[in-house]
Design brief:
The chain is α+β, with helices and mostly antiparallel strands and about 260 residues long. Helix content is about 15%, strand content about 30%. The protein contains 3 helices and 16 strands. A hairpin with a 3-residue loop joins strand 10 and strand 11.
């Protein structure tokens, strides 16, 4: 009986460990411009681009994992979530304020007066699956694409330049204990900086699988042409540690059943 009790409780204890997984936070992808208008240097008329913030070289793709959210009461419970990438617009003037400091000007930033948005331009993935974007602090999806149907909720666009919205702490909504950097508005007036750096946004998928999402930069003030597509591959799969634990739980269950049958024979 002691052996039976030990093998009965252990799988349950291991299963409880599966709930402890914490989704990894992804890095940043920067919006700026590249020289495309035939005139040396970067100025109005050059195309938007996702770029390296140190070299100005255009970047085109990224691969991330999406982790199953198991926290009871979380708005995204039961969905695969990625907190990245964190799309960020580079500062042009050096006068963009973020909480406690001015953000340094970057030579690859869009022209002052531009206002950048990101558009989800296309998605491939499991048929019928839902891919959603959640703005900072959102308790329901801000935009949703249903594979095979198209955009079924929202506009599929979100601001990159800070527009004056006060974003709450991510920790309040997603329970990961991480509080984002505060953002201070730059507004939409032509003289202002295109800078924006907003934490707490995320992307979710409702089925296991691989999703390839194309994002395009747009300037709603019309100073810069649209960017080429930037693709992010989201892998919605259990974390390796979770898979290993599930396998271990299965093995222990198999051993328990064999011992029980042996004891009964």
């Amino acid at each position: 009986m002691k052996t039976l009790a030990r093998f009965t409780l252990l799988p349950g204890a291991l299963a409880a460990l599966l709930l402890a997984a914490n989704p990894a936070r992804a890095g940043h992808v920067y919006g700026g411009i590249i020289d495309t208008n035939g005139t040396p240097g970067l100025q109005a008329g050059d195309a938007l681009s996702f770029v390296s913030n140190t070299t100005g070289v255009a970047v085109t793709s990224l691969s991330l994992n999406a982790t199953l959210i198991t926290t009871v009461g979380n708005a995204q419970q039961g969905l695969f979530r990625s907190s990245g990438p964190t799309f960020t617009a580079l500062s042009k003037t050096g006068f963009a304020w973020e909480g406690s400091a001015y953000i340094a000007a970057n030579p690859y930033a869009a022209t002052a007066g531009s206002f950048l948005q990101v558009e989800i331009a296309g998605i491939t993935g499991p048929s019928g699956a839902k891919f959603s974007f959640w703005d900072s602090g959102a308790l329901t999806p801000t935009a949703t694409y249903t594979l095979g149907t198209g955009l079924t909720l929202g506009t599929g666009r979100f601001d990159l330049t800070s527009d004056g919205t006060s974003y709450p702490a991510e920790a309040v909504f997603f329970g990961d204990g991480v509080t984002p950097n505060p953002t201070t508005p730059n507004g939409r007036t032509p003289s202002n900086d295109p800078y924006g750096h907003i934490h707490g946004r995320s992307f979710t998928m409702d089925q296991v699988g691989t999703y390839t999402v194309s994002y395009v930069l747009k300037d709603i003030n019309g100073i810069h042409p649209d960017s080429a597509a930037f693709t992010v591959t989201y892998n919605a799969v259990p974390e390796p540690g979770t898979v290993a634990l599930l396998a271990l739980v299965g093995l222990i269950g198999f051993i328990f059943l064999r011992r029980r049958r042996a004891a009964q024979s």
